Amino acid sequence: MIALESVSKRYGARTVVHDVSFDVARGEIVGFLGPNGAGKTTTMRMIAGYITPTSGRVTISGLDMATQNEAAARRIGYVPEHPPLYDVLDVSTYLRFVAKAKGVPPREIASDLERVIAACHLEAVFRSEIFKLSKGYRQRVGLAQALLGKPEVLLLDEPTAGLDPGQIQETREVIRSFGQTHAVLLSTHILHEVTLICRRVAIINGGRLLAIDSPSGLQKASEQTNNVTLEITAPADPLRAELLSIEGVNGVTLRPMPGRPSTQVVDCQVDARDGIEARIARAVSARWELHRLERQQATLENIFLRYVRESAPDRREAA
Amino acid sequence: MRGLLAIYQKELISYFRSPIAYFVVSVFLLGTGYFFLYNVFMTGIGTMNETLQNMGVLLLIVVPVITMRLFSGEYTGRTMELLMTLPLKPWQIVLGKYLGATTILLLMTLATCVDLVPLYLYGNPETKTILSGYTGFVLLGMACLAVGQFFSALTQNQIVAALITVPVLLVFWFIGHLQSFQSSYALRALFGYLSFAQHFADFIRGLMRSEAVVFFLIVSAVALTLNTSYLQWRR
């Protein structure tokens, strides 16, 4: 439903987005992940039609954003990073305005308003002026605005920023329920959020798309860097020698446990092969007392940081 | 059409929910009332001519205050991102806002008609001249609004928008005076043609010349077209 074909954006000599291509299908929530200034917002704005790409093409349900802007815009619900609200209007007037501007037929406006107000839990502030609303409510009015007119595509630029935990959960529920029937692109820098609600993740940094895959796919791809951590009462040097003699263990770092110097905390870098934990456990427990052994999964944090760090030299070359 | 109407309604509601419209209209009416009292009761001449002339000058100060927020306010409120991503064409946004501002101008103009009551009670004014004068005033106001709205689109800062609009309108108002210093006929004709004051003066005298009507409409159209192209270019 959302398709980007080698989209770039340049401002003078500065390239903000380099040749980004990906697509989002119906019924799919894609997380758009990147540090601040990575080009997330610029890409979102190009998809929404607020700015036009310097080169490349954005299509929404097959409609070209550049040539069929109005028809494409009708299919998009867009929540910018800062909710675009008119402080002097009250919530109902504001939503009514957006519904009319989106071309919702007059007869359906009331029911459409009811639908989004229920979905975003805005009943309590329906008549309030927007400038009186708390940040959480402002965020949700911004989301409600995007849902008006039943768009097929939802673009959410950091929709949960500044919300309290309860509101975050409610907002995620709304997004998840829309994700079943819509195409949703969600930009965020909260990694946890991505694992919770996104089927696929696109990682962007320095304006380049570094990877796009499911969270578990990304995890699998980077399992080579997995660590096994153990706590064991043993002398340091024989322990290191023993561990390194095990097949599949590539590196070992030891440090004495704080407060208990006879016990070592060991990080082993291991291959992604199965049964490595068992082999380590067998080898060391025969000679020493093993307290804890844990295989650390590659968290999305680590994967993300690795991608971002790896892409950093590229950026320097380009500059 | 529906998109245009949505923008228009939103603009009108915004005007009346912010203090600026009330302030501006009050200042304008107070000023007009003062000039009317001065012109009519001090001199004892029962016409609107002088008052309309003064209203025109007052407009040069009032219009920038009405127009300054039109686009600058959208930029600073970050609502431009909403407007430009809604299924609206830029001309619908521009025209909707312009019609909203024009409605305020018409309301303002209508309110000054209070002055006509004593004029008709105690004097014997020429109705046709007054009608022509008011038509000219509205046309002048519409041209000024279009210019002010264009400058509002160019800057994020409302004050800057007003500060650019005032001198530009003053130049259009006073440019006719440059005629006296020109030996070239072409320049004299050009300065005369561009002068807001000279075209408006015809209306006040009761002279509804099509050339003057077209002039004000062209100024509005040019400013609105520039405004629309600017929004398109900004994407």
Notes on the protein architecture:
The complex is a heterodimer of chains A (319) and B (235). Chain A is of the alpha/beta class. Chain A has two domains: 2-221, P-loop containing nucleotide triphosphate hydrolases (Rossmann fold); 225-296, Alpha-Beta Plaits, CATH 3.30.70.260. Chain A has eleven helices and 14 strands. In chain A, the strands form three sheets. Chain A has a six-stranded mixed sheet with strand order 6-7-8-3-9-10, sandwiched between helices. A four-stranded antiparallel sheet of chain A has the order 2-1-4-5. Chain A has a four-stranded antiparallel sheet with strand order 12-13-11-14, with helices on one face. In chain A, helix 3 (91-101) crosses helix 4. The longest helix of chain A has 19 residues, at 300-318. Chain B is mainly α and 235 residues long. Chain B has one domain. Chain B has helices at residues 2-17, 19-42, 49-67, 69-76, 80-85, 90-112, 116-122, 127-154, 158-174, 185-194, 196-204, 210-234. In chain B, helix 6 (90-112) packs across helix 12, helix 8 (127-154) packs parallel to helix 12 and helix 11 (196-204) packs across helix 12. The longest helix of chain B is centred in the middle third of the chain and has 28 residues, at 127-154. Chain B is globular. The model of chain B has no long low-confidence stretch (mean pLDDT 92). At the A-B interface, helix 2 and helix 3 of A face helix 1 and helix 5 of B.
Question: TL;DR of this structure?
Answer:
Chain A has 319 residues and is an alpha/beta fold. Helix content of chain A is 38%, strand content 30%. Chain A starts with a strand and ends with a helix.
Sheet-strand content of chain B, in percent, reads: under 5%
- The portion of residues assigned to helices of chain A is 25-40%
Number of helices of chain A: 11
Number of domains of chain B: 1
Instruction: Provide the low-confidence segments of chain A as ranges.
Output: 314-319
How would you classify the helix and strand content of chain A by structural class?
Answer: alpha/beta
Radius of gyration computed on alpha carbons of chain A: 25 Å
Count of helical stretches of chain B: 12
Shape of chain B: globular
Poorly predicted regions of chain B are none
> CATH class of the largest domain in chain A, anyone?
Alpha Beta
